[in-house]
Specification:
- The chain is α+β, with helices and mostly antiparallel strands and 137 residues long.
- It contains one helix and eleven strands; from the N terminus they run H-E-E-E-E-E-E-E-E-E-E-E.
């Protein structure tokens, strides 16, 4: 009986870690090159945003060695902070934005139209940024 309780506690703890803001995210695939991505710091709770809004439609682009979002109409990259654990890389000559659970959110050149976020007015270095919610795509 004790073994069953211990097993349930361990599995539950592992599940909570996976859902927490501390989970490290996907590993860099073989043959991929990492791209810099502005992310929020790790925290005990994931970045859910009840009552959030949507980032204006933006195209995935690369600027230097960083993945950025540029307004669909053009202009300077948006100030965006992605959840801790999200990643960006270039593989097969195409940049990809990848969520913490390894799902490709979008590829270079695609326009993201439904990226859930909230605005951040307080916390440097992302003050004034769109903070993308976990599960934000």
């Amino acid at each position: 009986m004790v073994a069953v309780v211990v097993a349930v506690v361990l599995v539950g703890t592992a599940g909570l870690f996976r859902l927490s803001g501390f989970y490290p995210g996907p590993a860099l695939p073989a043959g991929a090159t990492a791209l810099a991505l502005g992310t929020k710091p790790a925290g005990p709770l994931p970045g859910y945003c009840p009552g959030g809004s949507v980032v204006p439609p933006a195209r995935i682009a690369v600027s230097g060695a960083a993945l950025v979002l540029v307004p669909e109409a053009g202009g300077e990259p948006l100030n965006v902070g992605f959840p801790h654990g999200w990643a960006a890389w270039r593989i097969g000559g195409v940049a990809e934005l990848v969520s913490r659970d390894g799902v490709v959110v979008g590829r270079e050149g695609e326009v993201l139209r439904h990226l859930n976020a909230r605005t951040n007015d307080l916390n440097p270095p992302l003050a004034g940024a769109w903070l993308v919610c976990d599960g934000g795509a």
